[in-house]
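Model it.
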Amino acid sequence: MLSPINVSMESLNLITLAPMLIPVVGALLILIIDIIKVGLHKSLYVVLSLLFLAMDFIAVVDSSGVFIANGTTFGLFDVMLIDGLAILAEFIIVGASMLFIPLAMTHKRFHEFSYPEFFALFLFMIAGFQFMVATDNLILIFVGLETSSLALYTLIAMHNRDKSFEAAVKYFTMGALAAGFFSFGAMVFYMLTGSIEINKIALVLAANGYADMGFVLIGVTFFLAAFGFKLSLIPFHTWAPDVYEGSSASMAGYMSIVPKIAAFVVAMRFFEFLVHSGNAWLDIVLYIVVVVTMTASNMWALVQTDVKRMLAYSSISHAGFVMAAILIGTTQANTALFLYWILFSFTNLGSFSMLWMSRQKHLPDYQSSDHSYNKFAGMIKTAPIASVIVGLFMLSLAGLPPFALFWGKLYMISSAVAGGYTVLALIMALNSAIAGYYYLKLIIYMFMKEPLQGSDSCAYATNITLALKTIVGIAAIGTIFAFVAINPLLEFITAFVHNSGY
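Modeled.
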């Protein structure tokens, strides 16, 4: 007769699960409140969402204390883990989400924010992203990936425009394909190693001397395709511009930041040991993907006539730029990844939030699309403050000093040089120069062109609220004064990355 297995609560170490459970409980509470009392004002759901996100942030801070005291900590039968990568990623995920949610306090024409389901799905999505980054178990990563993705598909469709439905379907189709690739990749590595934990997979492959290199190559190919879809790396990027265009501007900005940091962390955990295994073919493949993604997306951005699509291609280029850190594979490069993405979060969310100011059901004759360049012509005369703020974000995205993203690009390029990737560093610098053209193009439209006939300030600033002013103000302050916090931020990130062994 088998003896019963006794599992103590202390051995489960449930603190590792706390940051994920908080948004799940918040989402369930919102749904229960809606069942009990229908038709409550959306401000209640905004406040509840912010409250649970604040609790989530505190739980992440508490987890960081556990990590500082004890190092990498496992929990829940060693499925969950607290390490530096998880903590840094969760700070970005929850922090960016706290900046996004207040945008719901906007004009009632954005009807998706009036549904309590929107906020419940949003919290479920955050929990999914946190599950992705706080484990090295491939099954739990897959569960987190699908939880976040299914919620995000629905959030896009809730915008309720023809392009929104099209965008949601495209994203769902590509996401389902990416999930299939991830599953096949996980199956191959389980077949090779008998494990679904990334650390154990690395140990078994190293012990075997990568004897089954053909199968390793097949598994890596599947994983690279899956991450390529989630990070919109070329040639897996085709969904991104259409999905960004079909989403609301604020959701597009959020999609360019939070889902990608989750995918970057998983990619870093998985590719790190392969990069250091000395297999030249992986270096070559990653090198090509990084260079082509940066360069081709910049070329496409140059010819766009819609600002939102330009920013979509710009976000693809930034993803390729940051993917270089995983190729380089040093502690400095991994630190640069998180520094870059924190600074990018302020700048890009601010840029898309400025587009969020306006949405027109009926386009005037001088506009070819909702956010065409012509809409911004002469904006310095019709909306001077808004034009200055947009110009600020464009200069930061272009990497001009002393604005935020300059420091991220500088540190990333310096990590490439230090890692022996001098040619890659030159390509990255050249792409930054090319990107400057299409960012400056928008500034030229705003500051050097005359307003088109029939345009006025109301055509742009139709959705200014206190919440939007606050979020844009925070983004602008972070963009302008980032240089003050660069050294402390670098020390903070480096400590977490280095102590995690990356």
